[in-house]
From TrEMBL:
<dbReference type="InterPro" id="IPR038733">
    <property type="entry name" value="Predicted_DNA_bind_prot_RHH"/>
</dbReference>
<protein>
    <recommendedName>
        <fullName>Predicted DNA-binding protein ribbon-helix-helix domain-containing protein</fullName>
    </recommendedName>
</protein>
<feature type="domain" description="Predicted DNA-binding protein ribbon-helix-helix">
    <location>
        <begin position="9"/>
        <end position="51"/>
    </location>
</feature>
<dbReference type="Pfam" id="PF12651">
    <property type="entry name" value="RHH_3"/>
</dbReference>
Length: 56
Protein backbone atom coordinates (compact mmCIF):
# COMPACT_ATOMS: atom_id res chain seq x y z
CA UNK A 1 0.00 0.00 0.00
CA UNK A 2 1.22 3.49 -0.83
CA UNK A 3 2.03 5.71 2.11
CA UNK A 4 0.32 8.65 0.43
CA UNK A 5 -1.56 9.17 -2.78
CA UNK A 6 -2.03 12.87 -2.04
CA UNK A 7 0.08 15.30 -4.03
CA UNK A 8 -0.89 18.69 -2.57
CA UNK A 9 -2.31 17.77 0.83
CA UNK A 10 -1.15 16.18 4.10
CA UNK A 11 -3.22 13.84 6.25
CA UNK A 12 -3.70 14.55 9.93
CA UNK A 13 -5.95 13.34 12.70
CA UNK A 14 -7.61 15.17 15.56
CA UNK A 15 -10.69 15.23 17.77
CA UNK A 16 -13.44 17.84 18.13
CA UNK A 17 -15.86 18.84 20.83
CA UNK A 18 -19.13 17.04 20.06
CA UNK A 19 -21.09 20.30 19.80
CA UNK A 20 -18.56 21.85 17.45
CA UNK A 21 -18.50 18.70 15.33
CA UNK A 22 -22.30 18.72 15.05
CA UNK A 23 -22.30 22.36 13.90
CA UNK A 24 -19.43 21.59 11.53
CA UNK A 25 -21.42 18.74 9.96
CA UNK A 26 -24.47 20.98 9.62
CA UNK A 27 -22.33 23.63 7.94
CA UNK A 28 -20.98 21.16 5.39
CA UNK A 29 -24.51 20.03 4.59
CA UNK A 30 -25.86 23.59 4.35
CA UNK A 31 -23.02 24.98 2.22
CA UNK A 32 -22.21 21.77 0.31
CA UNK A 33 -18.53 22.59 0.89
CA UNK A 34 -16.46 19.58 1.93
CA UNK A 35 -14.87 19.43 5.37
CA UNK A 36 -11.32 19.66 4.03
CA UNK A 37 -12.02 22.97 2.30
CA UNK A 38 -13.77 24.39 5.38
CA UNK A 39 -10.87 23.28 7.60
CA UNK A 40 -8.39 24.91 5.19
CA UNK A 41 -10.30 28.19 5.51
CA UNK A 42 -10.62 27.99 9.30
CA UNK A 43 -6.96 27.13 9.87
CA UNK A 44 -5.83 29.80 7.39
CA UNK A 45 -7.86 32.35 9.39
CA UNK A 46 -6.35 31.15 12.69
CA UNK A 47 -2.80 31.33 11.33
CA UNK A 48 -3.46 34.85 10.03
CA UNK A 49 -4.94 35.88 13.40
CA UNK A 50 -1.95 34.65 15.42
CA UNK A 51 0.70 35.80 12.95
CA UNK A 52 -0.69 39.34 13.01
CA UNK A 53 -2.35 39.84 16.40
CA UNK A 54 -4.25 43.09 16.78
CA UNK A 55 -3.63 45.21 19.83
CA UNK A 56 -6.65 45.44 22.09
Amino acid sequence: MKTSDLKTRDRFSSTLDKGINEKFQQLTEKTRINKSKLLDEAIRDLVKKYENPTKE
